[in-house]
Amino acid sequence: MRKSRVLALVLASLVSAASFAGAQAPGVMEKGGRHAMGRGMEGRRDGARGEMLRGLKLSDAEKAKVKEIRSRYAAEGTAQREAMKPAMQEARALRQKGDTAGLRSLRDRNKASREQMQALALRQQADIRGALSAENQKQFDLNLKERASRRAEWNKDGKDGRKGEHPRNHARTRAGR
Questions:
Q1: Paired residues of 157 in beta bridges
Q2: DSSP readout, 81-112?
Q3: What is the pTM of this model?
Q4: Helices within the chain (DSSP H only)
Q5: Which sign does the torsion angle of CA 112, 114, 116, 122 carry?
Q6: pLDDT bucket at 68, cuts 50 / 70 / 90
Q7: Nearest CA among 27, 45, 49, 24 for reference residue 36
Q8: What residues does each domain of the chain span?
Q9: Fold of the domain spanning 41-151
Q10: Which of 69, 65, 87, 88 has the alpha carbon at shortest distance from 77?
Q11: pLDDT tens digits for 12-48?
Q12: Residue 40, by phi and psi: left (phi above 0), alpha (psi -120 to 50) or beta?
């Protein structure tokens, strides 16, 4: 009887030690090595790019032209994002403190930078659209229109009065996330 108790205790300690060791071991990360909580800034940008070209049947020449356009705008976009980094870090700190007045002030101060980034994106979209065939331009325009309607839906007051929260998050909020 005593041997079986000792054996059970040893077995239980081995199982618990293995579970702790497994939790500490580095696992395989999904999503291209990014954190499981999200795709990060690069993922969101790539998602928007893919969204604009979804459903298009690009020829090799169109693919090359789109790639060239993206690379042409990449340096300017990177420079603008780097210039916005301090403001984004300040915004994160203000959100963590719950300082909504400070966030509004920061948003007003950085309006010109945001408008420059939007203008760059619009110029790039126009150049990409110009590089597409007439058939692909129609689908491209449809994709942009769908994206604009989703953005408008996202920005309007959602259920339970949470303005700006994505609609699919409402169910998770009610379920206790």
A1: 163
A2: HHHHHHHHHHHHHHHHHT-HHHHHHHHHHTHH
A3: 0.57
A4: 2-24, 40-52, 60-97, 100-109, 111-130, 134-155, 168-174
A5: negative
A6: very high
A7: 27
A8: 41-151
A9: Four Helix Bundle (Hemerythrin (Met), subunit A) (1.20.120)
A10: 69
A11: 776 676 666 655 655 544 444 444 444 444 444 445 5
A12: left
